[in-house]
Amino acid sequence: MVVAEEEIRPPRIGPAVALYVFSLFGGVALHKGLDLHGWVLVPIYAVPIAALGWMIVQKRRMRAVGAAGCSGGKAYQRRILGLALAYMALLMLANWLNSQFALHGIAAVLVALLPALPLIGMILAIGRLIIDEKDEYLRVLHVRQMLVATGFMLSVCSIWGFLESFDQVPHVPAYWAFVIWCGGLALGTLYNEMRP
């Protein structure tokens, strides 16, 4: 009796990414929406922390079997990490400056633009990933992931905008569009893993 060799599938990171993104968004929504404080937040934020650990384990497993990485991937990860750290630092600085000095006029505009600069850098880094990627198949996967993210973001923003115009939901600052788009990247990752 001959047993066919089972096809070995590389570890999948999409479910871990999706769990992380949506549990983090859900945690923030619960935290802010219900005005929760104290120890009750521990289980709410334990889920995205566990999902982040799962993502790290899956990424290491992917590297171990040679399924992770692309020609432009490591440089992209370095750029995104540096820009994310710059975003957090500039956001804290901008909030502190505004709270300490009650900025207005051109000073308020310049300080308000500070956190936007790293986000613009992230968009450029994502574009650079597509340009730097030498493998055409991986480039198609990146583009498809971004198309899914763009469709998700446009859908959410359109629905929210109509609900807002009918006074059914509160106003949300426009910079949340980028955050929603990043959440859509998780959906794009899942979509890529489900399709051949």
Automatic annotation (TrEMBL):
Q: List the keywords (alphabetical).
A: Membrane, Transmembrane, Transmembrane helix
Which sequence ranges are marked TM in the entry? 12-30, 36-57, 78-97, 103-131, 143-163, 175-192
Q: Which domain of life is it from?
A: Bacteria
Instruction: Give start-end of the signal peptide.
Output: none
- In Swiss-Prot or TrEMBL terms, this protein is called Transmembrane protein
Taxonomy, top ranks, is:
Bacteria, Pseudomonadati, Pseudomonadota, Alphaproteobacteria, Sphingomonadales
